Amino acid sequence: MKRTMPFPDLAIAWHPLAGELPAVHAIVSATQLVLVCRRIREEGGRLVSLWGEDRRTDGNGYRLCVMLQTSDGLLVMEQTMPSDQPAYPDLSRLFPSAARLQRAVYDLVGLRAMGGDERPWLRHSSWPADAYPLRAEAMVSATPEVPAETYRFIQVAGEGVHEIAVGPVHAGTIESGHFRFSVVGEKMLRLEERLGYKHKGIEKRFEGMTLTEGVRLAARVSGDSTIAYAWAYSMAAEALTGTRTPARALTLRALLLERERIANHLGDLGALGNDAGLAFGLTQFSRLKEDLLRVNASLWGARYPMDAIVPGGVRTDLSPDGPRQLLTSMAALEHELHVLRDIYDNHAGVQDRFMDAGCVTAELARRLGMVGLAARASGQTQDWRVDLAMPPYDGLTLEPAVHAHGDVAARVAVRFDETTASLRVCRDLLATMPQSTLCEPLGEVRAGALGIGGVEGWRGPVVVALRANVNGSIARCHPHDPSWHNWPAIEHAIIDNIVPDFPLINKSFNLSYSGHDL
Fold first, then answer.
1. Per residue in 241-283, pLDDT tens?
2. Domain check: are 222 and 108 in the same one?
3. Is 262 helix (H, G, I), strand (E, B) or coil?
4. Is the pTM of the predicted complex or chain greater than 0.70?
5. φ, ψ (nearest 5 deg) of residue 200
């Protein structure tokens, strides 16, 4: 980072974190934590992630870990707290998206945000209120039957107001999520979400795995972001072991990440056209996505290459004919993409549904701490590929695709722009593919140290934090999905829209349920 000693007046001992990310780290008091968060907020920075750790077994009690992004890079702070009173200051007044993260920290580790929302987020009466799955003594076994609790949804009262409950079980194949609408007629006054219905125990499952084993689980946190999670995890493991990733492996990782971005954007563009009444769009974009996935299967042995990235590098190289096959398929895709964009932009019915639906202003997006494509559609110029300039992106020409209006039309435009840009990035990567080994063995594990990794996934920044035991196994792994920051924005985006527009607005964000439900 440029600023290696942030806020010298606070007397905080900052230390650079090993690895590719420009980051510094410090142990802080509760007072220092709040002061730094407030200053970062005032400077226009944002919350990246927040998680808890039980470190009583190594004599360190409990810890709250907070990751922030500044104009210079990342700050990671750890507040220690005693075993008999694990509490910390509520950060949601500074960073609204911290509210649900704090509730999850309490459900999983038992660390309480003083003054914050104390409703459960992940527990859903699935385990006793005094049991915390990520504490050291927690047993991985069937829990006794727990009496159901009544969840306190926020009530909206007034003449003509009534509630519509949608989910958590849906008619399609999407995951479980409950949406409670307060409406007058068809006009939506308020939405409150409740997620986390299928707690999978992923963070607990990481414990005891080797660093090499853990990547397979990380790649399955959220299936449509498998490359992003596998790369972020591998980056964290490489930081913990001082392993230098070969240049060719980094380029292949970026190629895979951009193809994952393209595949998801194609799928969303088709689904959004369908939700607006243009079934033709779904047919055409589904065909284009299918063509891309078939090329993946041909070159990487899987339509969704979950195990292509490993700590230290990548598993396989491109075949000799691989670059030609990729370039040919991308040329065909780019031509059809331009034709379909022209159809979408000039289809009166589609534009009538897209324009002014689900608006999130630039000011609201900034205050909520939105990230990724949804933030860029609301005028926020942020993209880790540019902001953090990690290899191989530091050698490429790339500008974030930004639109100002913040409605469904803007989120569609960002997807079109980013798909075109990703095709260009893929060509540049193939043209500059370096010669090197594909994978290096991991070095010696630095027990107790913190390793972090992160990449700009197709939704936004995907982050993984890792800590290892003295025997080299995983002590704690925290995967963080960008959807944590954008789900609350949907509650604002729907206000004053009509009920039939909710599926379209929701799809224009297309956030991860699975990434919320670890």
1. 999 999 999 999 999 999 999 999 999 999 999 999 999 999 9
2. no
3. helix
4. yes
5. -100, -10
